[in-house]
Amino acid sequence: MRRSAAPSQLATSLGLKRKTKSDDEEEDRSSKTKIMASSSDWAKLRENLKKSKNKAHDNYDASNFISPFRKPLANVNDNQDTSKSKTETKTLICVSSSHEDFIKNLTSRPFKIPIPNYQSSSSYKSLGTRRQGARQPLFDPEEENAVILYSPPELSAQEMLKVDQNKLPVHVVVDPMVGRVLRPHQREGVKFMFDCVTGVQIPDNYGCIMADEMGLGKTLQCITLTWTLLKQGSDCKPIIDKAIIVTPSSLVKNWYNEINKWLQKKCNPLAIDGGGKEEIENKLKLFMFQQGRRIMNPVLIISYETFRAHSAILTKSPIGLVICDEGHRLKNSENQTYTALNALKTQRRILLSGTPIQNDLLEYFSLVHFVNGGILGTAAEFRKRFEIPIIRGRDSSASPAEQQLGNEKLNELASVVNKCIIRRTQALLTKYLPIKIEQVVVCRLTPLQIELYKMFCKSNNIDELGAKDESDLKLSNSTLSAITQMKKLCNHPELIYDKCVKKEKGFENALKLFPSNFDIRNIQCELSGKMAVLDYLLAAIKANTTDKVVLVSNYTQTLDMFAKLCVLRRYNYVRLDGSMTIKKRGKIVEQFNDPCSSDFIFMLSSKAGGCGLNLIGANRLVMFDPDWNSANDDQAMARVWRDGQKKQCFVSDFIKFRI
């Protein structure tokens, strides 16, 4: 440590005296010439300063600053025993050297890629490098019960030498996570759809129609196909990057739950089930702008109404796959929904419908044209080539030649469309589901209903329906209106009470037929044959079983009467109709299907929720009134007897007794 001399020590060594006050006064009195010193005096002064510093440094002793309570550090060599021999010293050095070498050997090993059964050809592989050799499928095709959707062609040894190993196709195998739960008919359905969307069934066409009857698992088959296309392909890369599922609003939440259930939350779908316009648009834009190998939301679930309202955003960029659930909504090729969906930039289109043919062949043409446009020509060409000969051949007055031509055209049409349509019936479910008992319950009309019915039929309103001078449109509307009033009357006289009060056509004098104690605020089951039978049935089920019941009607007024009956009998119930939001529909379905739920009755509007809903929480269903289209009744009846049902099912169809 260096020690600096104090100013007083420097002054003493230089022979300088400390100035006093008197000296300062004398200096003040001296002349100004003494202020400026000569350069030689300054040089001498600097030399004296240097000498004094060196002298102070020579007199410095560090031992004066050592603490008496601690010892100074010493070299390691000083602690060693000097009496050790040179041989012992060399031995210690060798042991230390071998230990260091061993540690360096452990820490300098190269990093190994954590791939099971992987053997590197080089000891200096880095993380993320590709494995050398032939390309491999994502899942093992040799595994037991593996669902193989594509098998590459077998090549001989000579052909293998000529082919580029980096371009060889590989097997496409369904993820065992979902493959193990597929039934035989579902495996066949997934394979058929995969062949269609990859252009195997019909070259240069990539669409198909899954027309299995209700309850055969169309949803699970489509989820399996979508997950496979998103993750793999014969070229060792995914076939699609995004998919859109368009469905009725009541099924948006159901699709979301089914995807999470079967894929074990490995896929993160985006369900548009409500929100403001700006919020929905932001979500859709975010979905459409997603790119790359890792997309956060690869599947979009959206209702037909929301899709139609925001089609401008969804048609801007290409989409890998579109699935239209309950696709019979697209039977009219001129409506806005059909036009909006047809504008999507995608070739792979799948249409799901348990009832693809409902009215005529032209509706059937619209469905086929949507998935594979052009295979049946234009609508005019289809009508001339197929529809007219087939309809004429089935006419009762058709000649043998017309019948033969009609059969030939029907077989020709079937040979074309069967390449892109697959349909299986509910007979397959008898192997897996409990027994289903269908009951046709004939209900006698009450005296009040008979009198009102006869009065309406004898009124001038019915006579006007048969007039020949009315236009076809007016005649059709009047006829349908009259039939609707008769259907409501058969359900319950309460449904036409307001028309009796207003004395509308056909009900001018009907109000006097109602009993004096009639109160529209309270349900009176004894005034309706159907309602009385329903009241007996529900009471017997509630008293003797733990079953749940689904009540289906086409009219919300009838659902209101059901609600009055449930309040009167203190039955817990939930209701689904067109006025309910998408989010609330999904919640009440989950609530009703919960085994711990106390809900006894599920009231369902066939128009709002008759298609696609999964109501396996109930095992009894009552069709209170028929629909104009029998296909809608078939859809509604399939809500309880489907995959997942554990109890014996009873389907009751209420009809009125003929007068």
UniProtKB/TrEMBL annotation:
GO BP annotations listed: double-strand break repair via synthesis-dependent strand annealing; reciprocal meiotic recombination
Secretion signal, residue range per the UniProt entry: none
UniProtKB keywords: Hydrolase
Record-linked SUPFAM superfamilies: P-loop containing nucleoside triphosphate hydrolases
SMART domains: DEXDc, HELICc
Residue stretches making up the Helicase C-terminal domain: 533-659
Gene Ontology CC annotations of this record: nucleus
Record-annotated Helicase ATP-binding domain positions: 199-374
Alphabetized GO MF terms: ATP binding; DNA translocase activity; hydrolase activity
Region spans: Disordered: 1-56
Biased composition (Basic and acidic residues): 43-56
Skewed-composition ranges (Polar residues): 1-12
InterPro entries the record matches: Helicase_ATP-bd (IPR014001), Helicase_C-like (IPR001650), P-loop_NTPase (IPR027417), SNF2-like_sf (IPR038718), SNF2/RAD54-like_C (IPR049730), SNF2_N (IPR000330), SNF2_RAD54_helicase_repair (IPR050496)
Protein name: Rad54
